[in-house]
Structure formats: C-alpha cells, structure tokens
Design goal:
Elements: E1 8-13, H1 17-26, E2 32-37, H2 40-49, E3 54-58, H3 66-76, E4 81-86, H4 91-101, E5 105-108, H5 113-153, E6 161-162, E7 168-169, H6 179-192
Parallel strand pairs: 1-2, 1-3, 3-4, 4-5
Antiparallel strand pairs: 6-7
Helix pairs in contact: 3-4
Length: 193
Amino acid sequence: MNTKASSAAILLVDDEPHVSEALKRALRREPYEFFTATSADRALQILADHHVDVIISDEQMPGRSGSEFLAIVRRQYPQTIRMILSGQASLDAAVRAINEGEVYRFFLKPCNPTDLVFTVQQALAHKRLEEQSRRLLREYQKQASLLARVEKHSPNLLRLDTDEQGAVVLDEADLEGNATDLLAEIELAMRRR
C-alpha cells in the first residue's frame, strides 16, 4: 500500500507477478493504493472486500481471460474503470474486451509508463466528473420535486412579479395562508444544500 494518502485504489490483475510489480513501479509517484491478483477469481474476491476505482487486467490468463473477467466486473461493479493489458494483441481480443467488458483502454505489453500514468489520471478525472454529475442530478431531482409539491399545493405561488428594475414585487395575497409555511420549507431546503 502506498504511504501517501491514496486518492484512488488500483487493482492489477496478471498471472505474472513481475508484470504487476512493473505497473506499480510505473505508477509509484501517484497517490494510489494498490491491490494485486494473479487470477480473475482472486481479483473478484478483492473486489468483494475493497472499493476499487481502476482495474488493469492482463488478457491472457489461465482459467478466465481478462475480457471475460472485465465483463463480470462491468455487471457487478459498473463504476469501476476497466483496462486491458495484452502481450498478444489480436483484433478478436480487442473487440471482445470492448464489447463485453466495455474497457476504457486497451494497452499492449510492454506499455509506455508515461502513457499508463496519463491514462489512469485521465480515467480517474472522468470518473470524478461522472460522480459529480450523478450527485448534481440527484440534487436537482430533489429540488424539482420540492418545487412541484409547492406548486401543487399553491398554484402560481412560484410565479414572480417584477417591477421595471427587475425587483421582485410581493403583495399581501402572496403572503396569505400556508404560503408562508411553504416559503419557510423552501428556505430550509435551500439551507441544507
């Protein structure tokens, strides 16, 4: 495990441990926590026990190919970024990895360390943007639901009248009844943000 505060967890899957060690060396300056597995089955055990942001898997492994493994990961852990590393690039392997595992990147062995570092950084930035987008969408949906309830309870309450300078104009009718309670609920919801 990296002694720096880790910003992401990386799972390296290769039946040849020296390949995983070489990948760790290439990424050593990055604040990542590393997990390694020598088989797809062991990697699935690690995924069951730990949050993993990125998987870099060998394609040719005994028991289960990297693309078969990543197809399982895609179904069970869809937010995990999946990459393939292959010493024997074939069009069939690349198509299978893309179609079944929806891989982010297909590397050839030996891969360029700088390219590897940049690609992992880029993938993690993309993942953070997707997570932020999902969070903002959930927040928007909550607020839209609240506004729909307010509008249903008091039609036209959310309609704003403005004067010539654009200032909001309220009259006494706007403040009657439960409208003030609903305004308080809106204000409370906005403070929780």
